[in-house]
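Q: I'm writing a short explainer about Protein YjdM for a general audience and would like to include a description of its predicted shape. Could you first generate the structure from this sequence?
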Amino acid sequence: MEDLPNCPKCNSEYTYEDGSNFVCPECAHEWSQQSVGDSNEEQQIVKDSNGNVLNDGDAVTVIKDLKVKGSSSTLKQGTKVKSIRLVEGDHNIDCKIDGFGAMKLKSEFVKKI
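A: Of course. Here's the predicted structure. Afterward I'll give you a sentence or two in plain language.
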C-alpha cells in the first residue's frame, strides 16, 4: 500500500488521494500534493495584541485581567511572563507563571516586551 501523508490539520492517518489533492475524511481538509513536496510542516505566525510577531523564548505582559479556569483567582493586568513557547491551537502560548504554574494563554491578550 502507498504511504500517504497524515492530515496537516488533525493528523489523521486516513487520508486519500482525489485527483491532484489529498483529502482527510475526518476533518474534510484538502491540500495539494505539490504542497507536501514543498514543506511537510507549515510555519505558524503568532502575533500579539499590537501585531508584533512572537517567537519562542520571548517575554510578554498580560494586557487585561484574565479569569483562570478552575480557580477562584485571576491573572492580573501587567503580569510579566518570561520564556513563552508557541504551540498550535486556540490557546497558542504555553508558559509558566509565578504563583499560578503552567498555563496556556491566547496571544490576543498579551503584549511583547
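A: For your explainer, you could say: The longest strand covers residues 93-97.
Q: Perfect, that's easy to follow.
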